[in-house]
């Protein structure tokens, strides 16, 4: 009876384990890598980068985090490429094309390649991390990934912004040491 119970429990464990692997859900993250120094990388960003299977980043960012992304599929994030095709006005001014000196057809092919890689990876249950310097919600060329892949429910991992780093470097408060807001938690009745 004990042997039967052990076999049954082992079989159930195997089924649950197999099911959890088969149902592994892929995910797309836009991850802040801080502002220049890896010491500014948040713990959450570190964890997402470490567990990522596929990484998109600029050459400079990839170099900064090379120890974290060893052994992963690594691709160029295409600096601001989704901005060209997902902006609200849907039209790229010729002055912008000229300023960046690129061929719009080549950029479309690059966009299609990136899109295919991300969608296939997420479909296969892989974790995809697009690495961004600074905080992508304040400034960054890759925030447009959120619009392009909104159906995948991407997650933004915020980080230390230049505001935080600059104020820490000059040892000054952003408010100049004076109260600039009212916090109802400190109201005395």
From TrEMBL:
It comes from the Bacteria. GO terms for molecular function: methyltransferase activity. Residues 1-24 form the signal peptide. Residues 27-178 form the Tetrapyrrole methylase domain. Residues 97-124 form a coiled coil. Keywords: Coiled coil, Signal. Gene3D superfamilies: Cobalt-precorrin-4 Transmethylase, Domain 1. It holds the Pfam family TP_methylase. CDD domains: TP_methylase. This is Tetrapyrrole methylase domain-containing protein. It comes from Thermodesulfobacterium geofontis.
């Amino acid at each position: 009876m004990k042997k039967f119970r052990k076999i049954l429990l082992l079989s159930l464990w195997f089924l649950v384990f197999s099911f959890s692997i088969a149902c592994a859900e892929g995910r797309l993250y836009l991850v802040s890598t801080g502002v220049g120094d890896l010491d500014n990388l948040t713990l959450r960003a570190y964890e997402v980068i470490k567990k990522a299977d596929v990484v998109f980043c600029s050459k400079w960012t990839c170099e900064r985090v090379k120890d974290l992304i060893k052994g992963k599929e690594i691709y160029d994030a295409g600096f601001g490429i989704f901005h060209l095709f997902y902006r609200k006005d849907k039209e790229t001014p010729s002055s912008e094309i000229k300023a960046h000196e690129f061929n719009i057809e080549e950029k479309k092919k690059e966009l299609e390649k990136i899109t295919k890689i991300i969608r296939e990876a997420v479909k296969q249950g892989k974790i995809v991390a697009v690495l961004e310097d600074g905080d992508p919600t304040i400034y960054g060329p890759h925030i447009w990934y959120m619009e392009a892949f909104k159906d995948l429910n991407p997650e933004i991992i915020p980080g230390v912004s230049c505001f935080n780093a600059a104020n820490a470097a000059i040892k000054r408060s952003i408010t100049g040491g004076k109260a600039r807001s009212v916090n109802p938690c400190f109201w005395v009745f």
